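Ticket closed. Logging final result for Mur ligase.
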Amino acid sequence: MSSTSLVELRVLEGPNLYFPRAAIKLTLDIGVLAAASEGNAARFARRIGLRGARPGAPDSGFRQRFAARAVARLVRAVASESGTARLAVRVRPTSDPHRLVVAYPWRHRERAQVMGRAVAEVLDALPGADIEDAVSRAAERVAAAEPGAAPHTITPRVPVVAVTGTNGKTTTSRMIAHIGRTWGKLVGWSNTDGIYIDGEMVEAGDYSGPSGAGRVLAHEQVELAVTETARGGILLKGIGLTRNDVSVVTNVSADHLGHQGIDTVDQLAEVKSVVPQITRKDGWAVLNADDPRVLAMRGVIKAQPWVFSRDPDSPAIREVLTAGGRATTVIDGWVAVLTPQADSDPLVELVDVPMTLAGLSRFNVENTLAAASAALAIGIPRDVVVEGLRTFRPDAEHNPGRMNFYSIGEVSVVIDLAHNEAGLEALLEIMNGVRRPDARLLLALGVVGDRQDDLIQKLGEIGARDSDVMVIAHKERYLRGRPVEELDGLMRAGAERVGVTEVVSYPTEVAGLEALVDQAKPGDVVGLMCHAEREAVYAWLAEHGGVPDSPETLAAKVRQASVGAGAT
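Final structure:
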């Protein structure tokens, strides 16, 4: 018989939002408990050991608080009566007052799931008169269940660098992997594109969850693992590793809100903090000192803090150095490492790091600081780190889909994922940085269908406000159940906020790119938010004379744009 109180039972195989080890996550509908008479609720409370509890009136705020305590106590009571003493339980509210999330660690997969279902069936029994017997029957079911398998969480045999954050984690993880290979190590890394072993993709797909880390570490020849760890993997499956040696948190901003119970940026930051929380005590947590939510993670980590900031005078740097930590920053145009009671160590000039686009890209300066910090923290020699930073390029070979620059005659084309507000603003910042005087910015805007309506509208507003020509280029593979017409309407509504009413829509990214390149004039910059058709876009560019920009070409474009800006 299925339970009406059990909304979802999810098995988390490794460290997660609730515990640093495998856990069961239950989403429970507590409507029955919320609506139960005060007498029934009080009888239920006595049965599970809350003898002095006052349930309050049905469907009151007092009853909701009682329900959170009672559900946690119910889980412990069933566990105790079935033979498991001192079970840790976490209860969290959701945006729905009649739903709670309950989590508890597990060692035996089948028995732990049986307990989750049994707890929900006790709640189902609340309207009846046999609530005392319902708890006893639940405990008996759990005691009689087959134990099942143990968690599959992997204890790494090689050093692991784990990278998380809202923006920049793919670029940062690729940079760290490149530096590791420059060191001569066989590096395995996993990210949103796939599994890579020694620079070769062995499997395509989104492997930013626990299966990606597991696949990398299962390769016997891997000497260094770099794992990209996304929000979804942490929430839906848990982290596949018991620990990491170095963690990186790039930043936290609004993205994927409204999914899996994460409705605010603060909640999202809590999810991301799971990664540095499982960093070894003698390892390093590399944190963005310019992001208050990331910097606050110092309060929950056991590892040593290593912060990075574009501002060498950041108070956070002083605090961390005073506490014995380390920092990486920019001093007089150089990437510099700071250690307590020592002179700064300038590593490399930003203009010599291709990913920073001659220092123009604020986000990629931060990614460079993060990657340099992590590489040094994992033990890669200083000269190797410098060489790796100098040789990693923003092109389709080193960093596909992220700030890839091309020239078609005298027109510049920039290809970037730019999947949220911060990413789009970074793309437009870069486009402006290479625009000649009096030239235009032409933007092909596209969104993924599982974003919130207000975010999609905001992307339309930013794109229309900050470009001279904007078109919509849809991502058919990423509509996520939304009609094209609905997405069109939301992006157009955002554009209308800034007075742009005529926005042409194209069915694909390639079609949008082609339309903009056709109308571009010498010196114009075309930007494409590219997600669904990256390989097709590269092929189109090659067929139409697109040439990848070398670091020297990019630097020349930046200089030409800055000279023109100074003249005006």
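The first strand starts at residue 6 and ends at 12. No further action required.
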